[in-house]
């Protein structure tokens, strides 16, 4: 498993919005992931941090991670960098989603850190569980 940060968020009012603007919403959801690029010039980006963005229906998942660090201080540094990368990616995506008309989209979500695995649309691990459980509380 990798160590890092995962963000899980959903579109607020998705059922109503998708019923009113189905084609527009589908197109916008398909366009979300590319807007989550984090510049390689970002000071926290380095070869140890990788990130992925996945869109499933009304759910956006952003995962930033590195190899599992055995040293506690190295793990904390990796998680801090992963939080920054995941949050920057989320900010870019959410800014695009809210600013584009027809319709603008608003999200609610949760960030968790820890161990997880992501393979395409398959997600497992304690950090995934924590983010999903806490997201339900909001």
Percent helix: 40-55%
Q: How far apart are the termini? A: 27 Å
Strand content: 25-35%
* Quaternary structure type: single chain
Strand neighbour order, sheet with most strands: 2-3-1-4-5
Structure annotation, total helices? 4
Task: State the order of secondary-structure elements, H for helix, E for strand.
Answer: EHHEEHEEH
Q: How many strands?
A: 5
Note the overall shape: globular
Brief account:
With 138 residues, this protein is an alpha+beta fold.
Protein traits:
5-stranded antiparallel beta sheet, 4 helices, globular
Q: Would you kindly provide a written description of the structure presented here, covering whatever features stand out?
A:
- There is one protein chain.
- With 138 residues, the protein is α+β, with helices and mostly antiparallel strands.
- The chain is built from four helices and five strands.
- Strand 2 (50-56) and strand 3 (59-66) form a beta hairpin.
- Helix 1 crosses helix 2.
- The longest helix has 28 residues, at 72-99.
- The protein is globular and about 50 Å long.
- The protein starts with a strand and ends with a helix.
Indicate the topology:
Layout: E1 2-11, H1 14-20, H2 22-32, E2 50-56, E3 59-66, H3 72-99, E4 107-119, E5 122-124, H4 126-137
């Amino acid at each position: 498993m990798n160590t890092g940060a995962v963000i899980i968020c959903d579109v607020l009012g998705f059922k109503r919005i998708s019923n009113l603007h189905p084609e527009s919403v589908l197109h916008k959801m398909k366009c979300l992931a590319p807007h989550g690029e984090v510049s390689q010039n970002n000071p926290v980006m380095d070869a140890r941090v990788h990130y992925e963005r996945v869109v499933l229906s009304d759910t956006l998942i952003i995962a930033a991670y590195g190899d599992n660090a055995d040293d506690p201080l190295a793990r904390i540094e990796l998680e801090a960098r992963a939080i920054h990368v995941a949050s920057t990616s989320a900010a870019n995506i959410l800014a695009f989603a809210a600013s584009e008309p027809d319709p603008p989209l608003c999200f609610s979500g949760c960030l968790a850190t820890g161990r997880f695995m992501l393979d395409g649309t398959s997600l497992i691990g304690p950090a995934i569980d924590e983010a999903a459980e806490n997201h339900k509380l909001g």
